[in-house]
């Protein structure tokens, strides 16, 4: 099965107050060393995959450059990443190649590299089309910048475009939110993501919200009910114009769903390179790739890893740790953990999880173990079923984290 490849570029012009990603502002002098390191990792991918116990595959059908702001790299650095990918993997015809961009960073040289390197999808981190709203969270662009970028992208032949929006930004009102939705629809982008602002410890605004403080305009953040109303209004308006809801936060015209992100939700294998990049690879049935001791390769009865279904591994989440070549953190997945993932990843999709299909893959008894959990969630109005398919209700989508927790019992980790 062809892999997805993710490259993390953790550099930004400013740190947005709501951002909980492993990205920050670094001097341009840092970029060169990072590109050297990530290219060396790409070249070593088969070795690392084997060390982690995963099945390596050179065939690739999606590439995603995220971050951070990859378009902050100079054009030669950006091009080197694409050349290294093409030299080390076999890109399938029609490979989806996405680059995340902050509006205003698409200079003529960057656009030329994207075009030359076969980039066919761009994700624009707009967040809000209301200039004052974007400014208070640290975005550097204006509404007009976004429309200029859209025109330039289309002139360069890139029409598969995503626009990110955030519901629940400080000072956001119903009227402002409707304006952002209207502009996103008017932009004719075939893919739109709508995220609800997260109040967690990983962002400055999130920490301030939890503390009940006033820094970063936290006291002007709409309450949870209003943010939920914004999200639901977004679902309704986008669905009404044919930009269909296909994942909790994602909407697309038919055929424009993100093929790369679908790999995450449907548990297809992928490799990630760079700071905080995650990978998931299948292991063979005997688990022999997990063997620390080659003698166990032919002796399945003594292999300590026999029975694992897949392996996840994550690169260090700090630039310092990544440059210092700290080892990835490895998490082998048992069949039980894989089944749990089928539920809490698959339920993110609006089409839901087909229990009959899951039973064919993992056995009826294994799936039936979740019958009581599923019944309870249905009784609470968080799940609904349609034949053998279960899916989140509207209320379930708003409380999705609580639903997913019900399916998680396994925590396996090997450093
Ligand atoms: S540009 Fe994106 S990655 Fe960078 S700080 Fe802002 S939200 Fe985070």
Keywords for this entry:
single chain; 415 residues; alpha/beta; pyruvate-formate lyase- activating enzyme; Arc Repressor Mutant, subunit A; 2 domains; disordered C terminus
Account of the 3D structure:
By secondary structure, the protein is an alpha/beta fold. It folds into two domains: 3-261, tm_1862 like domain (pyruvate-formate lyase- activating enzyme), CATH 3.80.30; 334-415, Arc Repressor Mutant, subunit A. It has 17 helices and 15 strands. It has helices spanning 29-43, 45-52, 75-88, 108-116, 131-136, 143-155, 174-186, 204-211, 224-240, 259-265, 319-323, 335-346, 355-362, 364-368, 371-379, 394-398, 400-405, and strands at 3-9, 59-67, 90-101, 121-127, 161-167, 191-196, 244-247, 250-252, 270-273, 278-282, 308-314, 329-334, 353-354, 383-386, 389-392. The strands form three sheets. It has a nine-stranded mixed β-sheet, with helices on both faces. Helix 4 (108-116) links the parallel strand 3 and strand 4. Helix 1 (29-43) packs parallel to helix 3 and helix 7 (174-186) packs parallel to helix 9. It starts with a strand and ends in a 10-residue tail after the last helix. Mean pLDDT is 93; it is low at 291-303 and 411-415. Bound molecules: iron/sulfur cluster. Iron/sulfur cluster binds at residues 12, 15-16, 19, 21, 23, 67-69, 102, 125.
């Amino acid at each position: 099965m062809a892999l997805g490849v993710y490259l993390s570029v953790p550099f930004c012009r400013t740190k947005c107050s709501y951002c909980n990603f492993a990205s920050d502002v670094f001097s341009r002098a840092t970029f060169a060393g990072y590109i050297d390191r990530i290219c060396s990792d790409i070249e070593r991918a088969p070795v690392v995959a084997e060390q982690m116990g995963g099945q390596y595959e050179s065939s690739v059908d999606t590439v995603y450059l995220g971050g951070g702001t990859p378009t902050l790299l100079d054009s030669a650095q950006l091009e080197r990443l694409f050349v290294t990918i093409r030299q080390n993997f076999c890109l399938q015809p029609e490979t989806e190649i996405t680059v995340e961009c902050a509006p205003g960073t698409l200079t003529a040289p960057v656009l030329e590299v994207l075009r030359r390197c076969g980039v066919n999808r761009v994700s624009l981190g707009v967040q809000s089309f209301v200039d004052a709203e974007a400014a208070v969270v640290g975005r550097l662009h204006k509404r007009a910048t976004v429309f200029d970028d859209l025109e330039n992208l289309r002139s360069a032949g890139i029409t598969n475009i995503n626009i990110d929006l955030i519901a629940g930004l400080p000072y956001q009102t119903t009227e402002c939110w409707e304006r952002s939705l209207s502009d996103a629809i008017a932009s004719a982008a075939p893919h739109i993501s709508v995220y609800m602002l997260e109040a967690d410890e990983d962002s400055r605004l999130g920490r301030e919200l939890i503390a009940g403080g006033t820094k970063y305009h936290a006291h002007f953040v709409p309450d949870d009910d209003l943010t939920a109303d914004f999200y639901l209004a977004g679902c309704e308006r986008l669905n009404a114009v044919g930009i269909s809801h296909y994942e909790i936060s994602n909407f697309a015209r038919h055929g424009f769903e993100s093929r790369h992100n679908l790999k995450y939700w449907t548990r297809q294998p992928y490799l990630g390179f760079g700071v905080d990049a995650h990978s998931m690879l299948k292991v063979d049935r005997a688990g022999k790739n997990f063997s620390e001791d080659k003698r166990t390769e032919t002796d399945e009865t003594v292999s300590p890893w026999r029975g694992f279904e897949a392996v996840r591994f994550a690169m260090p989440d700090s630039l310092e740790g990544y440059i210092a070549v700290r080892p990835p953190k490895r998490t082998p997945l048992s069949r039980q953990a894989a089944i749990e993932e089928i539920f809490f990843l698959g339920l993110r999709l609006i089409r839901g999880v087909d229990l009959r299909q899951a039973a064919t893959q993992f056995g009826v008894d294994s799936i039936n173990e979740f019958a009581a959990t599923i019944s309870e969630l249905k009784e609470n109005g968080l799940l609904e079923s349609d034949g053998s398919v279960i899916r989140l209700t509207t209320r379930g989508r708003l409380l999705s984290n609580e639903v997913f927790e019900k399916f998680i019992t396994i925590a396996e980790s090997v450093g």
